[in-house]
Amino acid sequence: MGQVDLAIVDQMVCRIGADQHKLLELLHAVQEHFGYLPTEALERLCQLTRISPAEIWGVASFYDRFRRVPAGRHTVHVCVGTACHVKGGELVYEAFRRYLGIPEGRDTDQKMQFTVMKVACLGCCTLAPAVQIDGITYGHLTSESVGQVIEDFLQRKAAGRAEPAKGQRTAGEAKAEIRIGLGSCCQARGSARLKQALEQVLGRYGLDVPIKMVGCVGMCHQTPLLELIVAGKSFLYARVQPQDVEEIVSRHLRLPGRRARLLASIAGRLERMVAGPPNGHGRADLLDREDRLVKDFLANQIRITTECSGQIDPLDIDEYVNAGGFAGLQRCLQALSPEDVIEQIRISGLRGRGGAGFPTHAKWSAVRSQPGTPKYVICNGDEGDPGAFMDRMLMESYPFRIIEGLAIAAWCVGADEGFFYIRAEYPLALQRIQRAIDICTQRGYLGDSIMGTGFRLRLRIIPGAGAFVCGEETAMIASIEGRRGHPRFRPPYPAQHGLWGRPTLINNVETLATVPWIVRNGGQAYAAIGTQSSKGTKVFALAGKVARGGLIEVPMGIRIRQIVEQIGGGCAEGRRFKAVQVGGPSGGCIPEQMDWLPVDYETLTQAGAMMGSGGFVVLDEGDCMVDMARYFLQFTQNQSCGKCTFCRIGTRRMLEILDAICQGQGKEQDLQQLQSLAEMVQKASLCGLGKTAPKPVLTSLRYFRSEYLAHLEGRCPAGRCRALIRYVITERCIGCTLCAQHCPSGAIAWTPYQVHQIDQTKCIRCGTCKAVCPSDAVRIQ
Amino acid sequence: MPRLTIDAKTVEVATGTTILQAARSIGIEIPTLCFADGLEPATSCMLCVVKIAGEKGLVPACAAQVVDGMDVITDDQELRQARQVALELLLSDHIGDCMAPCQLACPAHMEIPAMIRAIANGDLDEAIRIVRSAIAMPAVVGRICQAPCQKACRRGKVDAPLAIRLLERLVADLDLQRGDRYTPKVSVCPRPNQVAVVGAGPAGLAAAYYLAQAGIKVTIFDQQPLPGGGLRYGLAGQALPEQVLDAEIASILKLGPVFKMGLQLGRDLSLEQLRSSFDAVLLAIGASAKDQAAGLGLSAGKDGLVADKQTSQTELAGVFVAGDALRPRRMAIRSLAEGRYAAACIQQYLEGKPIEGIRLPFNCHMGQIDPDVLTQMMALASKAAQVRPSDGQAGLSWDQGQQEAARCLHCDCRKAQTCRLRHYAELYKADQLGFKGSKRAFALILEHPELVYEPGKCINCGICVRITRACGERYGLTFVGRGFDMKVAVPFGRPLGQGLEACVGRCVEACPTGALAWRKG
Predict the structure, then answer these.
(1) Which chain B residues touch A652 with a CB distance below 8 Å?
(2) Does B465 touch chain A (CB under 8 A)?
(3) Hey, are the CB atoms on A58 and B479 less than 8 Å from each other?
(4) What residue ranges in B68-121 does DSSP mark as E strands?
(5) Are residues A257 and A129 in the same domain?
């Protein structure tokens, strides 16, 4: 290995700073430059800063994003979030390793070209299974498509960056405009290429129609979305490909000299939306907003936190202001006292949307009542739950709204400095929030005298580094201070003793995004929605085995069934709905028989689940509940900070018991030990991560005990646990050899026109044969 | 000042005091491994969990501050169970042996490693004290023992085991040869109790030796003219010179037991007589006991007299059994061990205490070990081959003994006596195998000239990490990694010597386990 150029480290320290709280930023910079954290560079950091060797080394080894060994030129992050897990993310991960020939025990191929890593969740659950290669997201992968993805990626790299140019924005009102989805889901499905095609077509015909990049519409199952507004009428197209653009444009816009054809076109056929797998017929679907399915998807929703969904450009501050943005903040600064605002929040009944549901006004009052300065506010954007992507979407689509909420909160509690703590896995959110902060500062919505009132607030972004536990507020504080993300015992709460020992308010993204609406419309209006104890709306990331996944905002108290059936359109591919996993690794699986339950904090907790941050993953008959419990525990176990015994070792031992059960090696007494250990870990762990980690296990033991018992007998009823299943080829086989051609382990002999056979000793149970078989001849036993 | 109740006692303490400190101030000890005075609490081990009335969940007392009106419970069934689980979880990821395999294999559980280290240190007084506290006739054992300890010795997996039997013989012989022989302390408060020991073989003699040390009057009956039993009459042509046997019996007699020779149970004396004239009777009458059972009014099983395994007591109250009378094994060390065990039972019986014999303290086992572990253990041991006496009959010279002692791998824990994990494991009856699963690897890190760092024994309490931070070590120690894989190490992969420059002693003393220990044990 060559000499590490340390001069670059010196420059980084000059640029970023030498204080402890700059440590994460410094490490990100070092890693960005070298591709990993060379020891020499870390020692150099130590010489140049006031940060101790113990802190530097401890922090560098705590976070997943920091590598201690050189990485390949490109990094493939394979998502193993909940939605990806149930759709075969693990198989995709293995397929990448096989395709790239990565040896056992390593994560990088021999040529140091690709490093393949699992990532807890990319938050692109409707694209499951998804991967991100150097910031480019690919969705709906199969073991089969891995090679194409790598090829496509390399082509794109060779062709130079295919990233979109800055969206050209035309100010002022327009008779017609075209909106293209800008959320991660839309981008991953090619909204940037779509925009290019659109610009070309418009250019060719000399049309001056503004193209607006808008935030997430929430219909992530239909991406990329394109909406034309012509004379106040909206035409929404789903799954639009670049080649569709010309036809769509010619259909709705007056093309010079082609008027007649245009008219005929509009009157012509309207494609219907097809729920289900990605568009296979190569043509975009025009979604009629009056269509029953679209109506169902949208009708049960109330847009408060996601107000103006799909209508405004995330980074156009004028549009935000025209839509009522910053009116709330202005009202606070000019007409209300902090007490008035906190009272309105109290009346609204708003509770923390990050999981536990602590009343927001109580947190604010607690910080406000603390004497002295400085005080801090933190926006918790470390949405780490696998299967949740609400906060990502809110940050990508409504950055100004969150900033406004944070500003109102800061003004109420008396803080003049604030932080956004955002996962590094959300590059787009990081980018948009930063841009939005800059714009707000330029326009006087942030800075030394906000709206000329003398209220001062400066905001800074702290990018996380891959540690789920940092979503816990005391761990987040430690992380912002530049230390290992170890939680500490509460009380004292951050309201009394927070960042650098000062009173600190920490609110979740969604909570803050709801605040401006409440201030503008009054607490009563918000409290009018929802149930007795859970007011207003909740944003859920609807994903998993549901026909129409996406980002939804529903009134509290809505029944689980309504979400699954009406909004989600039931299970995809006609399979039977089995359970819904609410609250991710802190939540639990609620069985189909209980789908009449209303969604509110208390009901979900009583059912053994938890509101959590809002992951809502639908499971069908093909999902094994023991495997789900194992999956979540594997996640929390892996994310345990390691501080307290119960979580560090307890979750590991629970996982080992579950592993044995999934392998068919479990015994009766294992269930007892699992149950009692789970209860102990829940009761005695230090922080929320450990206290809630056993929930997926306990709920599955409560509602799906029979599945555990089946595993003890060596059966996986859902046909999911790999050690307990076999793939076999039935008589339906037409002898086409497709499976043999694709089998990665050579377990199928090449016997044209004969019924194929799988050599069980070679089979790795990757499911490729089943996926490629044209005659549905592969069965799971 | 907040006023609170802890286990129904009221206490008033300063604001900011933790529950743990408040409890200590009124003499209530809450167990903890990761708390150390003067350092901020770590809430790591979670042994200190307590309950606060009105709150759900358990709360770590080391970090929870008192609040006026608080009602704290520090000990009940639920908390004991939580602590037991915490300990069992820690033990499931704790790699090491508290006691060496040799000591466990020895029927008398003699502290063999301590004896070996005393020899290595040239401390004969200490060596013989250790030997005689477990074995009443070491010069005899040192000649005829089958030495199960040597079969268990880990060094045997490398080349040849330590010559433990010869080392024991060396210590015993040297002691017998010197004018001022080792004499165990005899209790200065004589007891009124009288105990009859029937049979002057190894079991009976050992029992008499330890009962006498407790200040109990012992009378030994035997049908033979001379004491020694099987050692004198059963070892035809073996390498046990009579003068050695006599010398060891003399050492026992010195403590006060009286012999009544030529008296046979069932012929010259009856068990009834003995029971009426003595407070307790020990039957150490050898393998023929089985045939005599009926005559004595006792039950016999397949092997010998029937007695409770734990109490060694027969169905007749106050009548105990030891040695081949229980099971004919013809193994002197086992009879000696059983004699000592029975003596402990009899003493407990006489004191009206529950009879539990001698309980082996809590012990962590490593079980089978990899060759790699042995290689690491060899690092501090002499690489020399096993010493051999000049001829078959001779013992070792003191020099040879010291050479041999240097071969010991010191595979028992250097902190076995002070380890707080072991202490609490004993107290809360934790089972090392309560949870099974993957474990950290064994490692012996010898980068510091005076220290042994065994990460396998570390429980991540972080006391050393906090000490090095508090005392401003240049590199210090830090946690590396996360979660289950978290370890304590010196930053930048530097050697331990650089991490611990200023506060080695403090770290070693404060480490609650054997993870950080002085090399010299």
Answers:
(1) 437-438, 484
(2) yes
(3) yes
(4) 71-73
(5) no
In a domain, A309, yes or no: no
Q: Token pair for residue A275?
A: 């729920």
Burial label for B379, CB within 10 Å (0-12, 13-18, 19+), is exposed
**Containing structural domain, residue A734:** 726-781
B residues 42-71 closer than 8 Å to A (CB):
42-46, 49, 57-60, 63-65
In chain B, what residues touch A62 (CB-CB under 8 Å)? 479, 481-482
**Chain A residues with beta carbon closer than 8 angstroms to that of B479:** 58, 61-62, 484, 642
Q: Name the most confidently modeled range: A6-15, A209-218, A227-236, B180-189.
A: A6-15
Q: In b/e form, how buried is each residue of B61-92, taking b as 16+ CB within 10 angstroms?
A: bbbbbbeeebebebeeeebeebbbbbbbbbbb
Binary contact (B483, A467; C-beta < 8 A): no
Reported as a pLDDT band with limits 50, 70 and 90, residue B309 is: very high
Which residue of chain B has the CA closest to A489?
B63
A691 & A741 share domain? no
Q: In whole angstroms, what is the distance from residue A130 CA to residue B154 CA?
A: 52
Strands B194-198 and B217-222: parallel
Q: Which CATH number fits domain B3-75: 3.10.20.740, 3.30.2310.40, 3.40.50.360, 3.30.450.30?
A: 3.10.20.740
The verdict on pTM exceeding 0.95 is no
The complex scores an ipTM of 0.92
Q: At A331, which helix (H) or strand (E)?
A: helix A327-335
DSSP state of A446: S
Task: Name which of A689, A676, A686, A727 is nearest A610 in CA terms.
Answer: A689
Interface test mutation site (partner B, options A486, A653, A673, A683, max chain B beta carbons within 10 A): A653
DSSP state of B97: -
Domain boundaries, chain B: 3-75, 101-181+366-380+393-405, 194-343, 438-518
Closest Cβ opposite residue A61 in set B89, B459, B481: B481
Give chain A positions within 8 Å (CB) of B495. none
Architecture, CATH, for domain B438-518? 2-Layer Sandwich (3.30)
Judging contacts by C-beta atoms under 8 Å, the chain B residues touching residue A686 are: 43, 46, 60
CB of B464 within 8 Å of a chain A CB? The answer is: no
Helix extents (H) in B240-331? 242-253, 271-277, 289-296
DSSP 8-state class, residue A230? E
Query: Which residues 6+ apart lie within 8 Å of A440 measured at CB?
Result: A317, A400, A403, A446, A447
Report CA torsion sign: A229, A235, A238, A239.
Answer: negative
Q: Is A98 part of a structural domain of the chain?
A: yes
Phi, psi of A574 (to 5 degrees): 65, 20
What pLDDT, in 10s, does the model give residues A237-263? 888 888 788 777 777 776 655 443 444
- Closest to A58 (Cβ–Cβ): which among B41, B459, B478? B478
Identify the CATH homologous superfamily for domain B101-181+366-380+393-405.
Alpha-helical ferredoxin (1.10.1060.10)
The pLDDT of residue B436 is above 70: yes
Cβ atoms A756, A728 nearer than 8 A: no
Q: Count of domains in chain A? A: 7
Q: Which burial class, exposed, middle or buried, applies to B291 when counting CB atoms under 10 A from its CB (0-12, 13-18, 19+)?
A: exposed
Inform me whether the C-beta atom of residue B470 falls under 8 Å from chain A C-beta atoms: no
The alpha carbon of residue A681 is apart from the nearest alpha carbon of chain B, in Å, by: 9
Would you state the pLDDT for residue A268?
Answer: 33
Neighbour tally for A270: CB within 10 Å? 14
Q: CA A654, A655, A656, A659 torsion: positive or negative?
A: positive
CA-nearest residue to B44 within chain A is A644
- Name the fold adopted by B194-343: FAD/NAD(P)-binding domain (3.50.50)
